[in-house]
Amino acid sequence: MSNAFVRHLSGYGHLDDTEKALLAGACRNLRELPAGAHLIREGDEPDPVFVILEGWACGYKILPDGGRQIISFMLPGDFCDIHIAILQAIDHSIMTLTKATVASLPRAEMEALIQARPMLTQAFWWSQLVDQSISRSWIVSMGRRKSVERVAHLMCELYIRMRNIGLASDHECRMPLTQLVLADALGLTPVHVNRVLRSLKAAKVMELSHGSLQILEPEKLAQIAGFDGNYLHERVHGFV
Amino acid sequence: MSNAFVRHLSGYGHLDDTEKALLAGACRNLRELPAGAHLIREGDEPDPVFVILEGWACGYKILPDGGRQIISFMLPGDFCDIHIAILQAIDHSIMTLTKATVASLPRAEMEALIQARPMLTQAFWWSQLVDQSISRSWIVSMGRRKSVERVAHLMCELYIRMRNIGLASDHECRMPLTQLVLADALGLTPVHVNRVLRSLKAAKVMELSHGSLQILEPEKLAQIAGFDGNYLHERVHGFV
DNA sequence: CGCTAGCTTGACAGCCATCAATTGGTGTGG
DNA sequence: CCACACCAATTGATGGCTGTCAAGCTAGCG
């Protein structure tokens, strides 16, 4: 009766059992996808709304010169651009980073839910606003943080997001990102990401290997990153 | 009976006269602000929704080290973060860049409009989605474009946005941004922005001086920028 | 046991930051 | 009308962070 999606939205508003059941029921159309599968490609006409139930995905854009910039990470429970359906064409692509199970909610059903349940509407809004807030925070990172700070900041963000959906504890969590993916997300080169990661490991601040993150010195990491989690607008705060 | 705000939203949905009148009527609470005035400061509790009727504003965040990163430009007709009211605290600041007149719509009135008029709801959504799309595009610029490309891309974006609200023509428009402001928006230093601007001028591609932009070779500028205006999701397309 | 994707390391180069100083334009006060 | 302050724009010199190129290395996997 509950899944990652329901739990995630519950964090954004006080949903009653009926609403939780409605959400869970909307997730009946499931797909198992391998890593590297596309949910949406740039230029597609939008129709269903996708929700990640298990696994990770990312949104990205390709530049004329072939370069790739990742613009968002999607974790279990996350929408893939709710309400993007209103626009005429998708302006970026979304692909899985791991094996993933994805629910596709028909647009009509989403709209019915919004009509029927104000509390769900609010939870959806909240979710979208948090996404927007994360985007803004990425702009700040890309514009004004150096490579070490940028890496540290992203690790803080992802750790907190994982913890908030119950997938992290003890400053440790799964982090299935190759250095190439990290580079494309951070606006760096894989080579440089590697160097930064090694330096953080050498300093015994954090370690990223075999697809999992271990934060050895949370306070130090947050300080390096200049991390202030407010932008995640979570009800539960705190990092250390 | 019409203002920049109404015209802007009309571009996002087919509003009838009643709806236009409702919007115009909502903008009765006006304020004249000088350049450099704050509409919202980080940490504020959100209440009214602000709309820029004349002049420019920008959203920004300050980093621990005192650096500033501008995360959005707001032009006449733009919302200042519609629906941010749902969150508990604002996570960034908004200030005017020029003398500006700003309308503040009480939150209750906004919600009443949404309840009463589905077409307005859709126009609001659209507007917010376009903002989000612009944020994503900024991430791409910051991450993967070099300084000249970044400057060129921003100029393309702002020119198109100005044109779409009827404030530009003949590849010329007002652009009241100091090189320091540009630097804070682009993640560069003022010194480097200056050099880039001079090189673009020397190449006779565009010229930015005395607060106005002149695009001498639109095609070349778009090519340098790798500009594809789709992300602005405008009904009227085309740059050249 | 070989293959392949991802990780690691070194050398070198270049873009952009930093520091410093000058110019120009505008508003203010004498 | 001029002196002055102040902000924005400009230019040069220098350095460092990060990109680029190239080559091994490791580990998982068929």
User: DSSP strand (E) fraction of chain A?
Assistant: 15-25%
* Shape verdict of chain A: globular
Number of domains of chain A: 2
Flag low-confidence runs of chain A.
none
As a percent range, the share of helical residues of chain A equals 40-55%
The helix tally of chain A amounts to 8
Q: How far is it from the N-terminal to the C-terminal residue of chain A, by CA?
A: 32 Å
Biggest interface, chains and residues, is: A-B, 44 and 44 residues
Fold-level CATH name of the largest domain in chain A: Jelly Rolls
User: In CATH, what is the homologous superfamily of the largest domain in chain A?
Assistant: Jelly Rolls
**What value does the average pLDDT of chain A take?**
91
Number of strands of chain A: 12
CATH architecture of the largest domain in chain A: Sandwich
Q: Nearest-angstrom radius of gyration of chain A? A: 18 Å
> Looking across the biggest beta sheet of chain A, what order are the strands in?
1-8-3-6
The main β sheet of chain A shows up as: 4 strands, antiparallel
What multimeric state do the chains show? homodimer
